[in-house]
Design goal:
- By secondary structure, the chain is of the alpha/beta class.
- It has 14 helices and nine strands.
- It has helices at about 10-15, 20-40, 80-90, 110-120, 135-140, 155-165, 170-180, 200-210, 240-250, 260-265, 270-275, 290, 310-320, 340-345, and strands at about 40-45, 45-50, 95-100, 125-130, 145-150, 185-190, 215-220, 280, 325.
- The strands form two sheets. Strands 2-3-4-5-6-7 form a six-stranded parallel sheet. The chain has a three-stranded parallel sheet with strand order 8-1-9, covered by helices on one side.
- α1 crosses α8, α2 crosses α9 (about 240-250) and α4 packs parallel to α5.
- Bound molecules: S-adenosyl-L-homocysteine and iron/sulfur cluster.
Length: about 350
């Protein structure tokens, strides 16, 4: 088997772009063994509730961008979100991810009560609702939110500014710093194969994951959406995405890394492949079926007609098929004594 050296940015770049099949194979197998050593065979499930597709931002890549007038918009009420979370908890989901476009749409007070109520279901609560003020993150943390997902999308500052009009990478990174300061378990990530992105940028993303000491890292291919300015661009390739996942595992060692829905969308076996080259998380969709087709961040998203129970059944089958097991417990970060951090904050 080919010898692998992953020490510098240029090693990472070389491995991302290798055309040698033996080297790619050695990379995947090393990532799989690093995964086994640092995070084990358990695959943790995160049940995602996409509670609103309204968005105040205009990201060039995303189908939810505010300029996309062809999308029917919806926002679930707090009661409906709670009932959906309750259903997910009943079938054994131990982490609820509340995701939406940016601009909450619910009053902060109402949303915080919802978080507190969901916490009573004895689940971990992850939020993924975009950039907010420090005080808002603090209120949601006090209400009981445990984790936050906010991808930095690309570490290339110029590309970031182009793809997210009116936004700056440094503001995104400042948000990640605040979340860390507030004791959230912090997830970030990026897309692979963005128009204008090269291997140097992806290597930069991987080094930034390490620098930020992230608890979770979501990596998925960019998928061109027909109702966005990037409609005619090429989507990110599966192979490059898998190599980015494998290198991220090798470099960051014990971070949680999901086999994302986007990887499963570009290739039917994409999520299984990701689980075999570094990933250890699956995110079954818990959104009520009637809303799913409207949460169209990118086209042809998988799992838009199955209900929560069949999504759960399908991912469990996938995990068993790989000879792995579903993680027991909430699947907190491997990086930190979570309890200690919570206690410190209460002092
Ligand atoms: N509004 C929040 C959360 C929803 S978007 C936010 O932006 O953080 C969730 C993720 O979807 C984004 O972070 C982005 O990485 C991903 N995404 C958006 N458009 C995409 C596309 N066309 N292809 C692949 N992933 C996309
Ligand atoms: Fe809105 Fe997030 Fe899509 Fe950007 S990526 S348009 S912030 S939903």
């Amino acid at each position: 088997m080919a010898f692998l050296r992953v020490r510098s940015k240029s090693d990472i770049k070389d491995l991302l772009t290798t055309r040698d099949a033996d080297t790619a194979c050695a990379l995947f197998s090393k990532a799989d063994s690093v995964r086994r050593k640092y995070v084990g065979d358990e695959v943790y499930l995160r049940g995602v509730i996409e509670f609103s597709n309204y968005c105040v931002r205009d990201c060039l890549y995303c189908g939810l961008r505010r300029s996309n007038r062809s999308l029917k918009r919806y926002r679930m009420g707090c009661g409906e979100i709670y009932r959906t979370a309750q259903k997910a908890a009943t079938i054994g989901i131990k982490t609820i991810v509340l995701q939406s476009g940016e601009g909450l749409g619910h009053s902060l007070e109402e949303f915080c009560s919802l978080i507190a109520k969901i916490k009573k279901l004895r689940v971990a609560v992850t939020l993924s609702v975009g950039e907010m003020k420090f005080e808002e993150y603090a209120r949601m943390r006090d209400a009981g939110a445990d984790r936050y997902l906010l991808r930095f999308e690309t570490s290339n500052e110029k590309l970031y500014g182009f793809l997210r009009p009116g936004c700056r990478l440094e503001d995104r990174l400042a948000c990640l710093g605040w979340l860390r300061q507030l004791g959230y378990q912090v997830g970030s990530g990026a897309m692979v194969g963005l128009p204008g992105q090269d291997a140097e940028d992806i290597a930069g993303d991987i080094l930034l994951y390490k620098e930020l000491s992230l608890d979770m890292i979501g990596i998925g291919p960019f998928i061109a959406h027909p109702h966005t300015p990037l409609a005619a661009k090429k989507s990110g390739a599966l192979g490059l995405t898998l190599r980015a996942i494998a290198l991220t595992r090798i470099v960051t060692k014990d971070a949680h890394i999901p086999a994302t829905t986007a990887v499963g969308t570009v290739d039917v076996g994409g999520r299984q492949k990701a689980l075999e080259c570094g990933a250890n998380i699956l995110m079954p969709n818990m959104t009520p079926v009637k809303y799913r087709k409207f949460y169209e961040i990118y086209p042809d998203k998988i799992c838009i007609s199955e209900d929560a129970l069949s999504c759960h059944g399908c991912v469990k089958q996938m995990i068993n098929g790989l000879g792995r097991k579903v993680g027991g417990g909430c699947g907190d970060s491997f990086k930190m004594p979570v309890k200690k951090i919570i206690l410190n904050r209460k002092k």
